[in-house]
Specification:
Elements (H helix, E strand, L loop, with lengths): L3 H9 L4 H14 L2 H8 L11 H17 L19 E2 L7 H10 L2 H4 L3 E2 L9
Parallel strand pairs: 1-2
Helix pairs in contact: 1-2
Length: about 130
């Protein structure tokens, strides 16, 4: 069972963030509610070599999953340190204003409040 705390720890050891999130999501969706609670309850540790964005994204992901599965949202996700000061758009062309506007419209609330703009199905797995 992978936890959100593990995601950051794996990234600090050089693992790819998207791979870690995908593995976490696969595990989370296969789990039962008590396991899901355990997977999201603990705040990730601070590692000096891990990008601030990763912490904010993990907080947004945790917040959204808790809401989607009607779990108690862990208090740690509400900390101000998990809000980006500059907007982050999940697109390759950072100058594409049309795509930016689209992501601003469709991003889940839990990501928007952290200044992260993703597709509406960013946490879906196939």
């Amino acid at each position: 069972m992978i936890t959100v705390k593990d995601i950051i720890e794996f990234v600090s050891d050089g693992e790819k963030f998207n791979f870690c999130c995908s593995a976490f999501l696969d595990s989370f969706y296969a789990a039962v509610d008590q396991q899901r609670i355990e997977m999201i309850k603990d705040e990730p540790e601070a590692f000096p070599d891990v990008e601030h964005f990763y912490y904010c994204h993990v907080a947004a992901m945790t917040h959204k999953l808790a809401n989607d599965f009607k779990l108690i949202v862990p208090e740690w996700v509400h900390k101000e340190k998990y809000i980006l000061t500059e907007p982050h758009y999940d697109i390759f062309d950072k100058n594409n204003e049309i795509l930016k506007k689209y992501l601003e419209d469709v991003s889940p609330y839990e990501f928007k409040i952290r200044n992260i703009f993703v597709k509406e199905n960013a946490l879906d797995r196939v």
